[in-house]
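Request from the bench team (R.T.):
"We need a structural guess for the complex before ordering more zinc ion. Sequence and SMILES attached. Just send the tokens back."

Command: build protein-zinc ion structure.
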Amino acid sequence: MVYREQQRMCPLCMAPMSASVLSVSDERVDIDLCDGCGGAYFDFYDGAPGHLARIVGGRSERADSAASHNHGAIGLCPVCEVVLSPHSDLEGVYRCDQCFGVFATPDGLRVLAETFIASPPPEKSLLKEFSDWLVDHLWERK
Ligand SMILES: [Zn+2]
Ligand SMILES: [Zn+2]
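Reply to R.T.: structure attached below.
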């Protein structure tokens, strides 16, 4: 697996992102945080729970016209440098169709946190940790 060979750049503001890892038992999510705009990029390749991926990036339809003109400024996937696709339901959330990574703008993180809070995960899991992390992250940024 090719991993962390170079600094990842924020697709929104092009600033370098700092890496952190969230893990519970054998599940993990790599998170890149942008100090410039407050966006975050999530990797889903290592034992990623399907429900998390489904919530965050389950829709694979291509951007419709509304989504694409609302978010014309988004850049490329920090990992594979292909164009990110806007999520059809979650504003500010983008997915890479190649690596299935997900980028969320600060607004997108808020939308994700609200989504998680509205439907709490059933058990202690990575998803729970992830939603806690999102809430902490948002508070920290306010
Ligand atoms: Zn940024
Ligand atoms: Zn990618």
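Two things stood out. Confidence is low (pLDDT under 50) at residues 45-51, 53-71. The helical segments are 50-57, 65-70, 106-118, 126-141.
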